[in-house]
Amino acid sequence: MQSDRPTNHSIDDGSKNTVKPPILWLPAIIFSSTMLISLTLVPWYGYEQGYSWGLGLFFLLFLWANGLSITAGYHRLWSHNTYKAHPILRLFFALFGAAALQNSALVWCSGHRRHHRYVDDIEQDPYSAKKGLWFSHIGWMLREYDSACDDFSNAKDLQRDPIVAWQHKHYLAIAICMNIAPPVLIGWMLGDIVGGLLIIGVLRLVVSHHTTFFINSLAHFWGKQPYTDENTARDNGLLAFFTYGEGYHNFHHLFQNDYRNGVRWWQFDPTKWLINAGAWVGLTKDLCRVPDFKIHRALLDVQFKRAEQTLAALGTSNERAMQWRSHLDTEYQQLTANMNEWNALRQQWYKQKSDRFSEATQELSKELQRKWEQTALHTRFKELEYALKMQRKRLNYLTAQLNLQPG
Ligand SMILES: [Zn+2]
Ligand SMILES: [Zn+2]
User: Which of 196, 206, 258, 384 could crosslink 183 through cysteines, CB 3.0-4.6 Å?
Assistant: First the structure.
């Protein structure tokens, strides 16, 4: 929740000398009153009257519709363009995203793009983790911080999307309707309007708010950093469980163009599964995936970096460290050779693709030859990926020998 506001206030960097910007009363009242009702009236009513199973089911359905509209819609579709979606799906995201009461997609995405561009910067990242857990979770929405200003210069593509533009223009009306009509309607259908308003209206909103806010707060504080340690983003499987897969935030910050956050098939990422399922029925297409080789490379880079740091700490006088240094040098040479070959193969691959398009007709023998070359290229790509995977295992082993924590 944010409101339109002037952007001339000084930044509060947490130091005691700076004056804090004024409080934004509307979001402050909404966050605190809904939380208060969830902690008092919701359990009291449940104790006195009880909630039906039907209400519980709709609570979960509405909660997931909100959450997935934020993660698959606001985040992976509109903020990062990781796939394309049919207008029906975009409309669904616009309606249920508004129900989540986290501002219009345009405001949300433009802020989120700034978060990625200036991650951790205390002045330009709207929810910089460097300003603390509270600030990155909710504090950034409670005061008129300049870093959260509504500047859409980085979201011109979204302003051209008619559904995003429509949702932004009528955001308040859509958000109010989507927060009142469904709880009342479902409550009326199930013969318990007050119960519907309490758990589908209020409790759903509070749970939806704070689970999504975890991505900005906890996912920058708690978890592992296997892909990059250049920023505070973390991978955390437990958090992924509560955030529709967004807990794999370390991967996401390095590969923001990939529609997956939990990149491994077994990682809990319902947002990825929804986007995938959409492709089967024609609601989504052009899903972007980072090549596996680049992912292995990122993991290896972090492993090498950690190994180098440990080695530096051990010093050169240690014999085991000297031995390890020579192993590491060999591995690094191997990695450089593989990278060079991979880059050359990519160039060859693109050239073949452009050749194929530039020639209208093809002789059969030429086509066959090309297909054979493509297969050979593909095999070599796979071999190189495998080589990197093995190298990661060797590095893990070397690291374990020195009683280090593998990356
Ligand atoms: Zn993102
Ligand atoms: Zn982040």
Answer: 196
